[in-house]
Design a protein that fits this description.
The complex is a heterotrimer of chains A (316), B (443) and C (636). Chain A has one domain: TIM Barrel. Chain A is of the alpha/beta class. In chain A, helix 5 links the parallel strand 6 and strand 7. Chain B folds into 3 domains: 53 residues, Orthogonal Bundle (3-methyladenine DNA Glycosylase II, Chain A, domain 3); 246 residues, Alpha-Beta Barrel (TIM Barrel), CATH 3.20.20; 120 residues, Rossmann fold, CATH 3.40.50.11600. Chain B is globular and about 75 Å long. Chain C has 4 domains: 92 residues, Roll (Ubiquitin-like (UB roll)); 77 residues, Ubiquitin-like (UB roll) (Roll), CATH 3.10.20; 140 residues, Nucleotidyltransferase, domain 5 (2-Layer Sandwich); 167 residues, Nucleotidyltransferase, domain 5, CATH 3.30.420. Chain C has a 6-stranded mixed β-sheet, sandwiched between helices. The longest helix of chain C has 25 residues. Chain C starts with a strand and ends with a helix. The chains are: A alpha/beta (316), B alpha/beta (443), C alpha/beta (636). Chains in contact: A-B, A-C, B-C.
């Protein structure tokens, strides 16, 4: 009975499928697809495209992880494989996003560990994976090659390429059939530019997921929010260079003063609130994958996304 | 649709008579296009043109004021669908529910909490806005008592939620002079509710089963003399709330359905997901949000999100210029100069904290411009640095005369040294490198 | 007092003990490179002290030199003080070089309508029957000779004082000169005999760096002489901001004012000498210059102009007696200064607009003047938008490792073989290359893009296995010329940082154009003409300017350089006084857009920091061409 919305969009966000089952040459128990929207997020009954997904973030070196999350997890986070298995079972995120934080520490010198970590997580969970590699030109080609190899056939989403640093990740994505994240610092022009650069070295637009960079809630989040809205509306207006789905992470929102300095008794509830208040808006602004670190956020986020996606009982 | 300066210019008399206060018709056209002047300021426009220009520059969503006094707030007046197109101007008010079934003490506890809760961020006071008094028993006297209990504690803006005109009037009898929002008129009783709105001079919320009949109802109420309306889009389905709100705003902004050109009311309790409903309301066009008492941790996140979204994207949030301390800086601590763009400040502050060095930050007034823009625009200059050093008494705070400036301000280093007599160290361009910089240059 | 001797040339000067070598150089008229204004920041004023003792802090400034140079006595002229006699060698690169100064104009023809008239008069001497006073007699004579009525001519005291003697000594046969100024007619000279053929005017382009003077015959309009030279204020700082800083110093403004007048006088003298005419017969001087330069010439403090809200002191045209500004022409000759619109849109831009003819056409033109600062004007007969901004010095060769001004040895044109990547270039004066000037840099950027050596953000693809593509000092670079072929004994390279600086410069210009177009609501297809003013626009390749996205894509035939628009505009105003009215109209018509206050500008800027632009659909022809190049080049 509602009056129709008026926008007359002509574009469509590309659909991207992450993960591969045995039938496709991988080992995932299922695959996920995002994108396909032909209108703003959650608009239309039913909404267009695919429902936004939730990725749970883990890492292989917890010393670079937010303290409130480490406190909550206890020893669970010392083994990435076990961590992934547990989180997948207990909290049922749609994807697992593994950060190889060990490669970002000074003096990293164990590239072989990249292969074993990726393999152990692949074995521990059947969920589609996002893998974040190094951030150092000296390490990139080795680290990304190992990620690519270890996950060959799994249709991983790997990250993160930036304008100054995209060739080795793109090469891995092309060589081993993976997808990649292209990140730009909260600017629609820079997001578009990076996509063009990637296309010009031969990467197909179907393999790119945009990370517009998500500022912390209260500390620049609004810039990210508007850039996401601009990217989405540009795609809907038919700008082919911006038609990729977007991924956002609440990582920065866990580092803000309000969370960091929270009383330990409230730390979990505050962490969940700040992640929820950053990631649900991100989904509304157009993100197709939203990522959180506190496992308790997942259920609330899923409920919110579910309620925005369809009316109770699944009816219109 | 917004007219470009040149389109407007073509409609102007092009006499450059300066009677509007602008030097030329073209500058007038530019200011009119950006909403800085009104079409009426030009004395030489014929009626038709004035109307045309006036219509295209008047906000398509009506402004509505709720409450009186210090805590009153105004909603509406919005002109865009997306904040990046210009800005969202009037942030939604959040109204905490009290019920006429609660005892007076409970009510007063809730009201006092709303009255007193204060969060200060970036120099701004973030507050909960008001109270929604809910009639649950249908008794006029109970409702009146509940309103009295609210009034006894604070003069906060109120929503009187009673559909029965008799109950509603019992509330208005107590606080009708303080511009509460009357909730809500429907097709069944709009005549009585309009009469109340007119009698007490209050804004009126209206509701109807679908947007078409809501638009008709708004026309009927306006004709009945109640012109300060708020559209209630409450639904148990968050999906429907977001879709209706989006449709209403699109119809209003495009002026397709002027009868929907009013602020939006959402009762978040209906959805069973208070946080998600508050988020949806803040982002997607809610103006009056009714909610049960919001838990402390959500409350902060909500206030911060609302502040973020309603920040003018074209006018960065500024930090008050001055000296800021990281850790416990002594007289030998390094002192970092930077601009008063909030994001720059917070980024640098974050990395300085992480670096473990006790240090001072000297924030100078570049009107919220980032370092790069401030240097390019000449807003960050050696004279500004000299004056700021003096104004904030920096020489008394430290025992050295070395100033660390942002990497992007390197071209100014010589001039700053000359103007201030301080030694200038050019810091990194990226705040993330500040720890490494300090290790190398400061120890 | 110590004596400082400069070689080559053995110019000597005495200075006070403790003076800097730079001050000594200024005393003898050697114009040294002082990009930073003599603060020891730029390292450009390198000299070698060959003998004698001096005071120079090598620890502090040694970073500017190689060990060999230090060994040879290198120091910075601005930071070296002398207390006894010294012999100083100034290397060529430290002297402001003779540069291509653009003196060409399009020579737009205009109706000859000067504001100066000379009347040869034969007056009857006074008698008891005819006792009217000398002045009245003279003015009547002018009226009778077809000049303005006696009552409307104003005669200044200086002229009146000379009248009785000149009349009598000449036997009542004199020539009177009348000019029309805003206040009305003015008697500015009286000479013996008939000097009517000697009636001249001077048009002046007062630039921050250079000065150009045209002397015109105001009877037939012919060009009598042309001269150009450096603005002598360069010794007080190279860019406009350092001049303003200098003006703030004690006595600084006065010094700058007299240097400006001196510079103009020198050029006028040279032109007058070449033409064989007397400077006193120059009756009107028309000056077009940027806002700061004209303010300084008039002795008006420019300091407040560079601070918010950037208000110039005067925004209409200015007139005065030329002598009051220290100009060495006829004492009462008129001085006309082009009006300024804002701090950065000055009289030079109004002169550009006048010269381009855009203010007299219906179709829309875009006028671009690029230097360290740039100005852009968009408009037509009815309306005009203007803006200005800082492009940075990269497009003029500054802040680029091997960038240089358009001096001898500068590579001004270059192309790359798409297969072998071998450059083919042309240098100014056809000598061995020493560096790249603006037009060469634009060519190079376009060619690197075509050859896929750089991506669209300007990053060099180091994966290309080619001897010219290499990692220099931590930064990737491309070798333009091997040291064996250069005139400096070093490889000439362009680094990734150079390329970034160039892209940022070009992005400011394009973003300014797009901001104005957006403000006016027009697209690139609506632009009928793009006019480039100034030296930069005269020499650059139009195709390559579009390829890199310095300007919006339009068919190249719509692009035309107007040469030195400032001097052309000044000439037009000198020859045709009716243009002065148009000048004021233009100045009033322009709506100035402050880019920093325009929220969309930063967005346009980041969009423009890409080759040619993030929105490739705005450059369809460039895209087609680049596509072809990529195919020819093969997948890199």
């Amino acid at each position: 009975m509602t009056m129709q919305t008026l926008a007359d969009w002509i574009g469509e966000v590309r659909s991207v499928t992450i993960g591969a089952t045995r039938a496709d040459g991988g080992t995932r128990t299922g695959t996920v697809t995002v994108g396909g929207e032909r209108d703003l997020s959650f608009v239309g009954t039913p909404p267009t495209g695919h429902r936004p997904l939730i990725a749970y973030e883990i890492c292989d070196d917890r010393s670079l992880w937010p303290a409130p999350v480490n406190r909550f997890l206890g020893d669970r986070s010392s083994d990435p494989g076990e961590w992934a298995r547990w989180a997948g079972q207990e909290y049922a995120p749609d994807l697992i996003r593994l950060f190889l934080t060990s490669t970002r520490k000074r003096g990293f010198s164990d590239p072989a560990s990249v292969t074993s970590t990726v393999e152990s997580v692949l074995q521990a969970t059947g969920l589609p994976l996002i893998i974040e590699g190094s951030n150092d030109p000296a390490l990139d080609s080795e680290v990304f090659r190992r990620i690519g190899e270890a996950g060959e056939g799994e249709r991983l989403l790997i990250g993160t390429a930036e304008a100054g640093h995209y060739r080795s990740i793109a090469a891995t994505a092309m060589a081993f059939g993976h997808l990649m994240i292209a990140q730009s610092p909260i600017d629609i022009n820079l997001a578009k530019q990076l996509n063009i650069l990637l296309r010009e070295i031969g990467l197909s637009y179907d393999r790119i997921v945009i990370d517009p960079y998500t500022g912390a809630l209260g500390y620049g989040f609004e810039y990210s929010y508007s850039v996401m809205e601009r990217i989405r509306t540009s795609a809907l207006k038919g700008d082919d260079d911006l038609t990729m789905p977007m991924i956002c992470s609440a990582a920065d929102s866990l580092t803000v003063k309000e969370v960091r300095e929270a009383d330990p008794s409230e730390s979990d509830r505050i962490s969940v609130s700040w992640e929820l208040y950053a990631m649900l808006p991100a989904a509304i602004a157009g993100a197709s994958i939203v990522c959180v670190r506190h496992p308790s956020t997942i259920a609330q986020l899923r409920a919110g996304i579910g309620a925005l996606w369809s009316s109770p009982g699944g009816g219109a | 649709m917004a007219l470009k300066a040149l389109d407007i210019y073509k409609l102007l008399p092009k006499k450059n008579c300066k009677e509007c206060g602008e030097p030329t018709c073209l500058t007038f056209a530019m200011k009119l296009a950006s909403g800085k002047v009104k079409a009426e300021d030009c004395p030489h426009l014929d009626e038709k043109v004035r109307e045309l220009l006036g219509a295209s520059t008047r906000p398509p969503v009506q402004k509505v004021k709720i409450g009186v006094g210090e805590r009153s707030f105004t909603v509406g007046g919005e002109i865009v669908l997306f904040r990046h197109e210009k800005a969202f101007f009037h942030e939604p008010g959040i109204m905490t529910v009290v019920s006429d079934k609660m005892d007076a003490d409970t009510i007063q506890e809730i009201v006092a909490d709303v009255r007193d809760h204060l969060m200060v961020r970036i120099g701004l006071d973030l507050r909960m806005n008001g109270i929604a008094v809910c009639s649950e028993g249908g008794s006029p006297s109970a409702f009146g008592k509940a309103v009295e209990a609210v009034e006894a504690v604070a003069d906060l803006p109120e929503v009187l939620m009673a559909e029965d005109p008799a109950v509603q009037e019992a509330g208005l009898a107590v606080c009708g002079n303080f511009r509460p929002l009357i909730h809500a008129a429907s097709h069944d009783q709009y005549r009585e509710m309009c009469a109340l709105a007119v009698k007490y001079g209050c804004p009126l919320a209206i509701r109807a089963p679908d947007l078409g009949s809501l638009a008709r109802l708004s026309g009927l109420c306006a004709a009945g003399g109640a012109s300060h309306l708020v559209l209630d889009l409450t639904s148990a389905s968050l999906h429907e709330v977001l879709n209706s709100a989006t449709a209403v705003r699109q119809h209003a902004i495009s002026r397709t359905t002027p009868a929907l050109g009013y602020p939006i009311f959402i009762d978040t309790r209906a959805t069973g997901l208070p946080d998600a409903a508050l988020i949806c309301g803040v982002l997607k066009y809610g103006s009056v949000l009714v909610a049960d008492a919001v838990p402390k941790e959500s409350r902060k996140a909500f206030l911060v999100l609302r502040q973020n979204i309603y920040t003018d994207p074209q006018k960065p949030i500024q930090i008050t210029p001055g000296i800021y301390r990281v850790g416990n800086p002594g007289p030998g601590a390094p002192i970092f100069l930077t601009v008063n763009f909030s994001l720059t400040y917070f980024t640098l502050q974050g990395y300085l904290e992480a670096s473990g060095f006790d240090s001072l930050m000297l924030i100078v007034d570049t009107e919220g411009l980032s370092v790069l823009t401030a240097v390019a625009a000449g807003k960050l200059s050696e004279t500004l640095v000299r004056d700021s050093l003096k104004q904030f008494g920096v020489p008394d705070l430290v025992s050295h005369k070395t100033l660390i400036i942002p990497g992007y301000a390197a071209p100014l280093s010589g001039r700053i040294e000359d103007e201030t007599g301080w030694k200038v160290l050019v810091g990194p361009r990226d705040a993330a490198d500040v720890a490494e910089f300090l290790e190398k240059e400061w120890t | 007092m110590p004596t400082v001797t400069f070689i080559p040339g053995f110019r000597k000067t005495e200075v006070r003990s403790g003076s800097s070598i730079l001050q000594a150089a200024q005393q003898v008229g050697i114009h040294m490179n002082v990009v930073c204004g003599g603060l020891g920041k730029c390292g450009k004023c390198k000299v070698y002290v060959k003998s004698g003792s001096y005071d120079f802090d090598r620890d502090k400034y040694g970073k500017f030199f190689t060990a060999e140079e230090l060994e040879a006595g290198a120091c910075l002229a601005c930071q070296t003080s002398v207390s006894e006699d010294v012999l100083v060698l100034i290397p060529e690169e430290s002297i402001v070089q003779e540069q291509k100064i653009l003196i060409d104009v399009m020579g737009t023809s205009t109706e000859l309508n000067p504001a100066v008239w000379k009347y040869a008069l034969s007056l009857s001497p006074p008698s008891l029957d005819d006792p009217s006073p000398d002045l009245t007699r003279l003015l009547w004579g002018i009226e009778k000779a077809g000049g303005p009525k006696e009552g409307v001519i104003y005669a200044p005291l200086e002229v009146i004082r000379r009248i009785p003697r000149v009349l009598r000594e000449s036997g009542w046969k004199v020539t009177a000169t009348v000019v029309l100024v805003p206040g009305g007619y003015r008697l500015i000279d009286i000479e013996k005999g008939d000097t009517t053929p000697a009636c001249y005017g001077a048009a002046v382009d007062l630039g921050t760096t250079t000065i150009v003077v045209y002397i015109r015959n105001l009877i037939d309009g012919s060009v009598m002489g042309i001269a150009s030279g450096y603005n002598r204020q360069i010794s007080c700082g190279e860019d406009i901001l350092s001049r303003v800083t200098y003006a703030r110093k004690d006595g600084g403004l006065k010094k700058l004012q007299s240097l400006a007048a001196e510079s103009i006088n020198a050029a006028i003298t040279e032109a007058a000498n070449n033409a064989g005419i007397d400077r006193d017969h120059i009756y009107e001087v028309v000056v077009a210059g940027n806002t700061i330069m004209t303010h300084i010439l008039m002795g008006i403090d420019p300091a407040y102009m560079i601070e918010e809200p950037y208000v110039p002191v005067v925004r209409r045209y200015l007139t005065a007696a030329a002598g009051r500004a220290g100009l060495d022409v006829g004492e009462n000759s008129g001085l006309f200064i082009f009006p300024a619109v804002s701090d950065f849109v000055g009289g030079d831009i109004i002169a550009d607009i006048l010269a381009s003819g855009m203010a007299e056409r219906d179709e829309v033109s875009l006028l671009i003047d690029i230097g360290t600062n740039f100005e852009v004007v968009l408009g037509n007969r009815d309306w005009m938008f203007a803006c200005a901004g800082a492009a940075g010095p990269a497009l003029e060769g500054g802040e680029v490792l091997f960038g240089m001004r358009a001096n001898a040895g500068a590579i001004e044109q270059i192309s790359l073989d798409l297969v072998t990547l071998t450059p083919a270039y042309r240098t100014i004066r056809h000598v061995r290359p020493k560096g790249l000037c603006g037009s060469g840099l634009i060519d190079l950027l376009a060619e690197l893009l075509r050859a896929c050596i750089i991506d669209r953000t300007g990053r060099i693809n180091t994966a290309i296995a080619h001897e010219r593509v290499r990692i220099g000092r931590q930064v990737p670079e491309f070798v333009v010329a091997w040291k064996e072929e250069t005139g400096i004994g070093k490889d000439i390279v362009i680094t990734e940082n150079d390329i970034k600086a160039l892209i940022m410069s070009k992005a400011s210009v394009l973003a300014a154009c797009l901001t104005l177009m957006n403000q006016a609501g027009i697209t690139r297809n609506d632009i009928a003409h793009i006019h480039f003013s100034g030296a930069f626009g005269n020499y650059i390749s139009k195709e390559n300017a579009i390829t890199i996205g310095l300007i919006p894509e339009v068919p190249v035939e719509r692009i035309s350089p107007i040469g030195n628009g400032a001097i052309e505009g000044a000439n037009l105003a000198l020859l045709n006084r009716r243009k002065k009215k148009l000048i004021d109209e233009i100045a009033r018509k322009i709506a100035y857009i402050e880019l920093n206050a325009e929220p969309s500008f930063m967005d346009e800027y980041t969009g423009s920091c890409f080759l040619p632009h993030t929105d490739l659909s705005m450059f369809p022809m460039v895209e087609e061409m680049l596509e072809k190049c990529r195919l020819r080049r093969g997948d890199p």
